[in-house]
Amino acid sequence: MSSAAKKLLVVLGAGESGTGAAVLARQQGYDVFVSDLGSIGDKYKQELDSLGIAYEEGTHTEERILAAAEVVKSPGIPSKAPMIKKLVEKAVPVISEIEFAARYTDAKMICITGSNGKSTTTMLTYHILKNAGVNVGLAGNIGKSFAKQVATESFGYYVLEISSFMLDDMYRFKADIAVLLNITPDHLDRYEYNMENYADSKFRILQNQTSDDVFIYCADDPETIAGMQRHPVKATAYPFSITNTLTSGAWLENNDLVINLNNHNSFNMSVNDLALQGKHNIYNSMASGITAKVLELRNQTIRESMSNFTGIEHRLEFVARISGIDFINDSKATNVNSTWYALESVSPSVILILGGVDKGNDYSMLKELVKTKVRAIVCLGKDTKRIHDAFEEDVDMIVNTFSAKEATQIAFHMAKKGDTVLLSPACASFDLFRNYEDRGEQFKQAVKEL
């Protein structure tokens, strides 16, 4: 307690993670000041008020912030932001909420990162542990603030979804079990448009690990394998693969998912029994399954959990079947790679709803799948030129729309029995919606009204 006594901790950003960090800091005896350049939600204001924590919104008061002994910043604030640069010049430590909160818990950390599949794998892993009776919390890029849970709960384990932005501000933190699902181009605007910089950021998930810890990775992912040459692994490593049979880790044999760690009590289950279907979800299930086996959970429990998991909202979420047409909400697909996974996992033929704010997307990786599976594309967004340029030769029809309702109605009219209408935009949502959740909700509402 005394080490924090009245040291000034400044929290930049007052969303879920920032408010949680402020709550924990106050509990640990810090003098706390919260500053948000945007506006602060009423729910978070009430929480800060109830604890008497000082805050400001719509501005950053420089002298107060620069007086900090330490700063916890929201993952959404880039390191290039002027205030962050000033703090770094002044040698004030700038850390993430995860780094800060981890100091105050002895819980074991299961940390999941990767460009795609991390929310699903995090939720599935949490689901397996919870069903096995493990005292486990869920946090990071998902659910409730990690810091707030450290302040108010007493979990023995945490399953944390960790983004590269969080990892960039983590230094002493250690994952007891680190999972790296894959590395594909995303957020390159934050990494000088350099893939190696982005990959190195993901590999921070390994920092501070020792031979007592575990690293779970995809042996089929070329960027991960290349990264492992640059970042030596000290932990016990378990690969997973769907193309090769391995001696330890997880792999496919005939149609069975097999997990074997050091040749005792191996696990196997038919991929047809997995709740999550599609190639990418076999990877997600393998990563979660290895984690469960590392913790020595019972095979029966793992099998049950993997077969009854219901998936997550806005990620390949089945909405309805109307007149023999399936509607799937994959609004969380904000990059091309996510849309590739979605197309790969649904059966032909597809009416694809694409578009939004394009982060410099390279659509070429979708071309083959679009040719073989997609009948028509419905563009949803203000700027659709690049989608037209990329696919006009591959599909019969491309139509522009400017609302979720319009896109849904047009897709329904184009579809015939046996088709799938897939909202998987490959773009951010900020041109027409508040966020990807808002986009997904509006799509689901529009489907209900058909």
Automatic annotation (TrEMBL):
EC number: 6.3.2.9
Compartment(s) where it occurs, according to its Swiss-Prot or TrEMBL record: Cytoplasm
Keyword line: ATP-binding, Cell cycle, Cell division, Cell shape, Cell wall biogenesis/degradation, Cytoplasm, Ligase, Nucleotide-binding, Peptidoglycan synthesis
Recorded GO MF terms: ATP binding; UDP-N-acetylmuramoylalanine-D-glutamate ligase activity
Primary enzyme class: ligase
Any Gene Ontology CC annotation: cytoplasm
Residue numbers binding ATP: G114, S115, N116, G117, K118, S119, T120
Occurrences of domain Mur ligase central (ranges): 112-290
Gene Ontology biological process terms, A to Z: cell division; cell wall organization; peptidoglycan biosynthetic process; regulation of cell shape
Membrane-spanning parts: none
Catalyzed reactions: UDP-N-acetyl-alpha-D-muramoyl-L-alanine + D-glutamate + ATP = UDP-N-acetyl-alpha-D-muramoyl-L-alanyl-D-glutamate + ADP + phosphate + H(+)
Pathway it works in: Cell wall biogenesis; peptidoglycan biosynthesis
Record-annotated Mur ligase C-terminal domain positions: 314-427
Record-stated family: Belongs to the MurCDEF family.
Protein role: Cell wall formation. Catalyzes the addition of glutamate to the nucleotide precursor UDP-N-acetylmuramoyl-L-alanine (UMA).
Protein name in UniProt: UDP-N-acetylmuramoylalanine--D-glutamate ligase
Biological source species: Hufsiella ginkgonis
Gene: murD
